[in-house]
Amino acid sequence: MSLYDSEEVERVASSFKLDSKVVGIERFGSGHINDTFRLQMKDGGVSYLLQRINHHIFPDVEGLMHNIDLVTNHLKSVLQGKVEDVNRYTLTIIPTNEGAKYLKDVSGDYWRVFILLDGTKSYDIVETPKQAFSGGMAFGKFQKQLSSLDATKLVEILPNFHNVEFRLSNLRKAIADDKVGRLSQVEDILAYIFEREERMRRIIIMAKNGELPLRITHNDTKFNNVLLDQDDNVQCVIDLDTVMPGYIAYDFGDAIRTIINTAAEDEKDVNKVVLNIPLFQAYTEGYFSEAKDFLTEKEIESLWYGVLLLPYMQAVRFLTDYIDGDRYYKVHYMDHNLVRTNTQLKLVKELEAHEEELIDILHQSLVN
C-alpha cells in the first residue's frame, strides 16, 4: 500500500473502539514491514497508530497478537503503582468494536491499533555512550520485567530464527545444490565458518544441558526500538512483533552487533570495520544496571557467546543467500550478499582479536 486510499483506511479505523472521530490520516515511521498510519482525532486528545500487519512475514497473526497482548498486559501489571500512567510505558492494544485484538478485512489484510505515545523520540543510530547506556538499560529492564512471565505461554512466531544449527543446515543445503555455480568463489570463507561451528553452537549446547532458562526475548534489539522521553530517559521498548521464547544472549548479541561496528553492514572496504569499544562498554553498563538482578551465572557467561554468534550467524545467512542465487535478501549489485558476508565476518574477527578486553569490560560492568 505505497499509495493508500484514505477512505479505505478510515473505514478500517472505524471498526476499532476509538475515543472520537478520525479527522486526519498520515503515514508514520520508517518501518519496512508493516504499513503504519497516524490517526488524528477530532478532540485532539489521544492519538492512535493503525497498522496493516504484513502477514507474509508474520503468517500467524493470531499468535503474534496473542504474544503482544500477553506481554503488554504483564508489563502493565509489573508497572502498576510504580508509575502514574502505565499506558505511557508500554504499548496498548485498542480492540475492535467486537472486542478482538485485530481485524481481518474483506481483502484478507490484517489490521491493529495501538495508542500512539506522543512526546517520545527514538534514534536510528547510536552515536554517544549515553545513548548506548540508555539502550542497554531499556532492553535490560524489558527482560527483567518479563522474567516473571512464563515464556512457554508465548508462541514461537519465527521458528528457528536464532537457531545456528538451522542456519548452518541451510548453508550446507545451498552448498550441495550450488544453484548458480558460486561455490568455488567462497571456499576460504566456508573454511573460516566451519572452523568456528562448534564454538558458535555454545548457547544451544548450554540450553540443551539445562544451563540456560528459557526467557521472553525481543529478537530485534535495534536502538530505534527504544522510545525515550524528551530528556533522553528510557520510556519503553516497542516493535513487539518478534517477541517470543528465546535465550537472553541472543538479544544482547544482536544489540552489540548493531552498535559496535563503525562501518555499514554492506561496507566493501572491510578495513573500515573496527570496534567502537566505548559504546560496547556503555551498553553493557546500562544493560547490567537492570538485568544483573535476575540473570543467572550461566546466562551472564552466555552473553559473550551471543556477541560472537550474532554477526557470525548473520554472515551465514548472507552467504547462504549468495550461494543460493540471492533469493531472500534484496541486492543492489551482483556480489552484494558476498560483501555483506565479508563485513560480518570481519566483525567476528575483530571481536575475537579483542576478546580478552571485551570480556573484562563485561565483568567490570557487572560489579559496578
TrEMBL record:
Pfam families: APH (PF01636). InterPro entries: Aminoglycoside_PTrfase, Kinase-like_dom_sf, Pseudomonas-type_ThrB. Residues 25-258 form the Aminoglycoside phosphotransferase domain. It comes from the Bacteria. PANTHER family: AMINOGLYCOSIDE PHOSPHOTRANSFERASE DOMAIN-CONTAINING PROTEIN-RELATED, SLR1880 PROTEIN. This is Aminoglycoside phosphotransferase family protein. The lineage of its organism: Bacteria, Pseudomonadati, Bacteroidota, Sphingobacteriia, Sphingobacteriales.
